[in-house]
């Protein structure tokens, strides 16, 4: 039992307050907070509102440090080099703003990366270079594609997903980190989907920077993430906002931002406890097997070419290629809304490298019938979408 909620593998859906009339097949975007974690956070909110002065001024930084140490241990990271941050976007913004980059410096990304990274770099006047590789590229091809785009003296930072957001690929980030270090290029690993998905050892990756969201697959409240920084970069890290902890430097200066709501961070260890109670390996296998089932039945239902699972076999996300009648991102977004409205299924739909894809997620609250409903109804939704898009005579 966790915080008054019985944990039974056959009743794991009851651990969540999700609307049971909706089939939630997109855990990868925003996660879902279990009820025991919600309750832990609410107790912290009650404490904060009962005596704000005591909450914010008597031991808050010590409590944040305790949480930081707990999360760092879970991730195999150095707690002295780990800071709590809201999300991956905040972590990337902190790093880009701390490296002393100037207009014209180059940031290297991949065609599998998260779309806001180039946006953040371009806002600073940085040049963005993209390394491209396909869905079936092996580790050697991936490393070679990234290294081929390095420009000595110009490329200052590479940002590479550990598990790619649009395509659910697992990339060889430790090899990439070593290859880039030989060339004097810093690496930031975007591990937004990693905590809870992989049994990760962040220190062994040896990247300059590593970030991970705990509110996706590690059952933490939103927004909860960590930024891990190698020792040589820590003194230069600047927070998003200056606070009374500025003089203490990283990580305190990054974590503290005045009257923010810190209760989600402080409740995050409850999510890890729940994951461990369920059994991390069992959760990962359930999610991976169920996502693979969803990929198979939905692909068969709409008759498109199967997307190979590849290394993504270890994750709870899979891709399904959509028909060419979904020609761009606007059409993919419209389809996502149609599926939600007409089938009661929440999905992710993206346009990547000239094709539209569904990205299906699986979590312990999902069952096979959720994907069966999507498979049964999606052909009709696609047909109606095609008809709606045809010009009238």
What does this entry look like structurally?
- This protein is an alpha/beta fold and 393 residues long.
- It folds into two domains: 135 residues, Aspartate Aminotransferase, domain 1 (Alpha-Beta Complex); 235 residues, Type I PLP-dependent aspartate aminotransferase-like (Major domain) (Aspartate Aminotransferase, domain 2), CATH 3.40.640.
- Helix content is 42%, strand content 15%.
- The chain has a seven-stranded mixed β-sheet with strand order 2-8-7-6-5-3-4, sandwiched between helices. Strands 9-12-11 form a three-stranded antiparallel β-sheet.
- α2 runs antiparallel to α12, α5 packs parallel to α6 and α14 packs across α15.
- The protein is globular, with a radius of gyration of 22 Å.
- The N terminus is likely disordered.
**SS elements, strand count:** 12
Beta percentage is: 5-15%
What is the CA–CA distance across the termini? 64 Å
List SSEs in N-to-C order. EHHHHEHEHEHEHEHEEHHHHEHEEEH
Largest sheet: 7 strands, mixed
Shape: globular
Number of domains: 2
* Helix-strand makeup class: alpha/beta
CATH topology name of the largest domain, in short, is Aspartate Aminotransferase, domain 2
Low-confidence stretches: 1-5
Q: Helical amount among residues, as a percent range?
A: 40-55%
CATH homologous superfamily identity of the largest domain: Type I PLP-dependent aspartate aminotransferase-like (Major domain)
Kindly provide the name of the CATH class of the largest domain. Alpha Beta
Estimated radius of gyration = 22 Å
Q: Architecture of the largest domain in CATH? A: 3-Layer(aba) Sandwich
Number of helices: 15
Calculate the mean pLDDT score and round it.
Answer: 93
- Main-sheet strand order equals 2-8-7-6-5-3-4
């Amino acid at each position: 039992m966790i915080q008054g909620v019985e944990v039974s593998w056959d009743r794991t859906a009851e651990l969540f307050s999700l609307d049971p009339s909706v089939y939630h097949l997109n855990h990868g975007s925003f996660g879902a907070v279990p009820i025991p974690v919600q309750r832990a956070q609410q107790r912290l909110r009650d404490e904060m509102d009962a005596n704000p002065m005591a909450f914010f001024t008597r031991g808050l930084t010590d409590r944040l440090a305790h949480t930081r140490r707990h999360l760092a241990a879970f991730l195999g990271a150095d707690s002295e080099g780990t800071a709590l941050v809201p999300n991956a976007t905040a972590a990337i913004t902190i790093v880009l703003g701390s490296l002393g980059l100037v207009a014209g410096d180059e940031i290297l990304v991949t065609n599998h990366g998260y779309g806001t990274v180039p946006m953040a770099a371009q806002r600073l006047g940085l040049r963005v270079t993209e390394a491209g590789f396909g869905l079936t590229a092996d580790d050697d091809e991936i490393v070679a594609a990234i290294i081929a785009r390095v420009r000595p003296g110009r490329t200052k930072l590479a940002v590479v997903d550990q598990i790619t957001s649009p395509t659910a690929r697992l990339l060889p980030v430790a090899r990439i980190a070593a290859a880039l270090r030989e060339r004097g290029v810093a690496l930031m690993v975007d591990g937004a989907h990693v905590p809870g998905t992989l049994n990760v050892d962040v220190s062994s990756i040896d990247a300059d920077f590593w970030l991970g969201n705990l509110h996706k697959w590690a059952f933490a409240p939103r927004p909860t993430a960590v930024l891990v920084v190698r020792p040589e970069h820590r003194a230069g890290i600047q927070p998003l906002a200056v606070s009374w902890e500025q003089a203490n430097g990283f990580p305190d200066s990054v974590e503290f931002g005045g009257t923010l709501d810190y209760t989600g961070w402080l409740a995050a260890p409850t999510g890890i406890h729940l994951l461990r109670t369920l059994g991390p390996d069992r959760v990962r296998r359930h999610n991976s097997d169920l996502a693979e089932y969803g990929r198979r039945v939905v692909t068969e239902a709409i008759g498109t070419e199967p997307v190979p699972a590849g290394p993504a076999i270890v994750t709870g996300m899979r891709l399904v290629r959509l028909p060419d009648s979904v020609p761009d991102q606007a059409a993919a977004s419209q389809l996502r809304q149609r599926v939600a409205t007409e089938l009661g299924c929440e999905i992710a739909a993206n346009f990547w490298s000239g094709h539209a894809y569904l990205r299906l997620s699986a979590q312990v609250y999902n069952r096979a019938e959720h994907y069966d409903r999507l498979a049964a109804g999606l052909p009709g939704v696609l047909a109606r979408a095609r008809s709606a898009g045809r010009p009238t005579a």
